[in-house]
Amino acid sequence: MPADELPETFHVTTHEQLRAVSNLTRHRIMAVLRFEPATITQIAERVGLAKGSSSYHVRLLERAGLVKVVRTRKVRGVTERYYAMAARSIVLPDPGEGGPDVLMRHAVADLEASPVEGRHVRMAHLRLTEEQFAELGARLQALADEYRELSNPSLPDASLVFALFHPARGQQAEGEAK
Predict the structure, then answer these.
(1) Rounded CA gap, 26 and 21, in Å?
(2) Is residue 157 situated within a structural domain?
């Protein structure tokens, strides 16, 4: 199934689905399948897993409805399955105040595992009106959407993660008087 035929979003709603996406290995498998279908062997090679481990994790993702078989073919009497994401994007539930943010934990793990050269990491502390805050959030989302549309599966992967948030009350910028 071509990527343009996929549903736009898949909302994670069950405990089984949340457990499936919470695992870093499965997160990385979904990243492999983000742009094009792949077999268990291809997934194992790209993620650096044994085929058995790759198969196990893909089965859990498939059972949770996050990935699906989109094509099969016979190779030396064996049916080879090609897996793809069930939707263009996965929407996770809000972790709630103080809860672990699975998406950000995976993003940090991916960032730490990435080569240092070519990284663009910045943090800015801002003071904005609610209108400016909302506008910035919308602009960041529009920019991410624009570049997602420009993505070409033949090019190397790049990840964009952003978090625009109000710090918890009581957190102050370093050096700010209390």
Answers:
(1) 6
(2) no
